[in-house]
Amino acid sequence: MKIIQLRCFIILSETLSFSHTAEILHLTQSAVSYQIKRLESILKFQLFNRNNKSVELTEAGKYFYRDATEILSRLTLAINNAAAIDQGLSRTIKISYGGFDLERYNLPEIIAKIKEELPKTEVMVLLSDHREQRAALLSHKAHIILTPRDNIEDADGVIYKEIISSGLDCIMSERNPLHEKTMVNVEDLAREKLMLLDPTRSPRELSTFAKSLQQLLPESHYTYVDSSASANILIKSNSGVALIPEFARSLDSGLCRVPFNFDATVSYGVAWLKENDHPDVVHCARLIHQCFQKV
């Protein structure tokens, strides 16, 4: 099993589009198709159902996706750790992120900028949920985290710089008539199947919002998803509407976004420890903040 095969599988699982996957990975569609077929041959089971019009994950594919993302993240980290030791770099900065498209699409360019300004510094990225991020920062396993503010606002000795403060968006497929609205109100969702981020894996602000919405729409059907990427897959199968903060939404062009008229905002930014005042860490954190604000 090769890294490129895992990358092709994960991106295709999230986009359900060979052309979009090829564009993201800078490959041809035939190359993506070949890597998926090779991976299925190695695993000895089918990951996708595909025809001329659509691509869908099989049940086995959905299960494999859950672990494949972590496998790839850990493997990438192991390679980066070993490479840093081999090259004798003077400093390694570990950045923890939540896996949002905003991060995945922009961090490569930001890291390249960091390496340009700090050529002797190696950058590692750690994919973590919000609880793991907080623990990693406070235990010095990560130097910098990209996180919602309420994840760390009660922690002592943490510096936080806001990147964006946003409300919630309704994310849906083009088949949902709500996509034609300029603003979605609470009553518009009364007959919709709603997807919310799992409150056990989400910042406190989103958990509070979920409880408020359930009080307003007690008869609605709710599904909890572990990430915006999982919501993306379900939305494309027309399984409902997801309510996601702007910073956490998918950037997939195949989805529709309409602002949700609800009194809820979530702050997202970059955080690091005051005691970790190494110039490289502070420089990286401020550079990340500046670059994301330009997005």
TrEMBL record:
CDD domains found in the cross-reference section: PBP2_LTTR_substrate (cd05466)
Gene Ontology cellular-component terms listed: protein-DNA complex
Transmembrane segments: none
The entry's keywords: DNA-binding, Transcription, Transcription regulation
Cross-referenced InterPro entries: LysR_HTH_N, LysR_subst-bd, WH-like_DNA-bd_sf, WH_DNA-bd_sf
One Pfam assignment: HTH_1
Domain HTH lysR-type: 1-58
GO molecular-function terms, A-Z: DNA binding; DNA-binding transcription factor activity
Record's keyword annotation contains Transcription: yes
Keyword Transcription regulation: yes
Family annotation (PROSITE patterns): HTH_LYSR
Family membership: Belongs to the LysR transcriptional regulatory family.
PANTHER family: HCA OPERON TRANSCRIPTIONAL ACTIVATOR HCAR, TRANSCRIPTIONAL DUAL REGULATOR HCAR-RELATED
Entry protein name: HTH lysR-type domain-containing protein
Source organism (scientific name): Pluralibacter gergoviae (Enterobacter gergoviae)
